[in-house]
Amino acid sequence: MEYTIVNFEQHSVIPVETFLHRIFPAGLYESDKNRIVRERIFKPRKDCEELALTLPVDWEAVKDSSDRNWRMQLQGWTMFHPVMNFFDSYEDKNEIVDYFLAIARDWYGQYKNDPDNVTTSRMPSSYAWYDMSVGFRALILAFMINRIGFFKIPLSEADRDILRCLAEKHIANLSSEETFSLNNHGIFQIHGLLALLTVLGADETDDNVGYALARMEELVSSQFDASGIHLEHSPHYHFYVLSTFLAVIKSGWYARSDLIEGRINQAQTKKKWLVDPLKRPVCVGDSILTVQDSVDFSGENFQESFCISDFHESGYGIVRSAWHKDPNNSSMLFLTAAYHSKSHKHRDCMSFEWFESGEKIICDSGKYGYRSDRYRNYFLSARAHNSVEIEGFDILKIKPYGSALNSVEQVSENIFRFNANLDYPAIKHSRDIYFKPGCWVVVVDDLDFVRERGFTQWFHLDKRFHISSLLERSLYCLDSSGNEIYIDCLNGSVSPIIHYGDDKNLQGFISENDYCFSPALALGFKGFGKSEKLVTALSLTEDNREDALAFVAHHIEPELLKKTVILNERSSKSILPNIQHQVYLDASAFSRAFGERTNRVYIDNVPLTFYSSFSSECRKVILMLPGATKRSKGIYDFQRHSWANDFKDFDIISFSDPSIRDDNNISIGWFQNSEKAYGIDALIKFVQLLIERDYYKPEDITIFGSSAGGFAGLKLANELPKCPVIAINPQLYLERYTPSHFLGMLESCYPGLDRNQVVKKYSTRLSVNLDGGARESPVCIFQNVHDESHLLRHLKPMINRYKGDITEFNFGSGSVVSKTGLNIVYYDDPELGHSPPNKETTLKMIALVTQSMYE
């Protein structure tokens, strides 16, 4: 079909954003606009030097052909993008049109005889008919035709002929099925085609208009999946393409299509998933850290603690803190396991980024840019990402697999699991990532090859980190603020390799902006074989490291339990001054070391941390359980441990409450710990371990605590009937305690459940219900009569419900403790009230019970 350019005057002004994929306000060029036009300046990117165009233009960039993006933009006439922004306000519009016509004549003179259906590769020798170049030129042609007509700018017949020929040649090229690209470049092709058709007066009955509409529907469907995720492996391009489509829709030329607007609306809702808590795109694929101000985290569900993605078909898996949470206190892990096409795809299958507390921890190496050089090759390579580089394996030479992501799920309290896998005849790679926000990441790579191959598991740290120490396969790094990260590879057959800004071997770089890169730590674990399992823990503190290794030992790699002593000997951390600290990833490895120690024993994912003073001469022990702690002391509070020398005939174990953690600010937790890892159960198992090892007989283990410690001790009484239990002013019904403390505990230990849900589901955890008939040793509750709240709201109701013998007497009366029943001993201290009695009085209370046991 032929189109003629006549009756320009009939055209109205079409908004500039209809033609431009990016809008820069005209005022941005206010000081330079005359110079841009008169000196004919071409500067497509900030990092480029400006070029004053002279005729004839070197359209093929013979002098410098390495920058592919620059060449594409030259052929796409993007020297007119700034001009289009200020065209309507520019005083001498004839001056602009003269510039435009000069460029148009020069280009047409060189390419007018080319076939209309020229197609090119992704890296062509000439960009004259490159898909995106043609689309850009078509939009600029349409804009200029529209403005020339509206502002009644006179044209000679020769120039009118040039514009007609250019328009028809571009319409012919863009309406050819052979030249169409089903990727984001195709958007500019089809929109450029429809722009030309519109300004030339074509209506919806025109075959080319119908073709353009159908192609744009196809493009939207191929660019964004049904959930609205962009399918070109780059969160940055999600925003780029979405903004392009929004401009496309604003034209009004696609109003007949419900599909286009519906899919774009879906893409709008997914923007928030593809940025970190600072609203910067996750840097996988061709992405850069440009803050996306259009993202809105407000108005989301404030009840959630963490958000989990549910669009696995895209190949993106995400776990992040609730949307409303302050970025400086937020966590996020983003896994990419997608290969839909080669567009913007890096060799980054199953790579991930990890964000914590306002900073990246583990980073993708970034985009770099499209200049064809050794650095571009590096940033595209498998070794530039947080995945496994496999010898002889290039994913981009294999047919796209779509999504390799199988699941993202919560597997236990605050622990999430990502699973993805690649399954080829010669190479199989399955990856599990376990994520405990704010604490650690554990990466498990199962590799299975038909023949032996070399492989390297790579991790790229944020550029602020530097190495503090390296011991075998354990790396310890710090940043300038003292933030830590521990990286432990638990596979003994691999060797560590470290690079930092290594230009010779091209490793250890981070690129956050186009053509800019910085040195950063790259850590690899290198091996060779047919079948390997690589387990690597990345932890933010030493405590988190211990927790991560305990998780690995109990859930992934049981062999690690045998290495407990070796791992612990590397720890230099002390909780108490001048006292050695020992950690046991498995309770079965615990041994009673004589002398003073602090210890951590993991039992069913509960970290029991305690002070111990063991003597070879003692066969009896007192277990001291903590009441409320002062958070100024830190998270470990071994209450009354300094009294160890006052007990000549007893060993001492003083526990800290595992409910008190760095990630909360509670001061009292009653050993609740968490919904799926109940601290009281772990305590019971530890006491049973002491008995099974024959360290102590049950009747020689005295359990002591006041207030919250008394509650915990009484919770052990039914399961340990032969152990004497002493409690001072204990809580017995936690719901009746100070609401702020009770609700604080619920929020920390039972996140995601409201008060009613916890009370209904875990009522037995929240109250003491003693079984008097099962007891073989005394339970003794000391109650200050001036602590009226605990006396009236806790003790009296329990006495009324108790079934069994009760002995009640006053402290100091000379009465004897009953060995098998419940003893209530009242004391009178009006000054202290609920506060525990002084050391002298407390020792007398303990002696009253222990002496009765051994008379």
From TrEMBL:
InterPro entries associated with the record: AB_hydrolase_fold, Chondroitin_lyas, Hepar_II_III_C, Hepar_II_III_N
Cellular location(s): Periplasm
Domain of life of the organism encoding this protein: Bacteria
Keywords: Lyase, Periplasm, Signal
Coiled-coil parts of chain: none
Domain Heparin-sulfate lyase N-terminal: from-to ranges: 44-251
Name of the protein described by the UniProt record: Heparinase II/III family protein
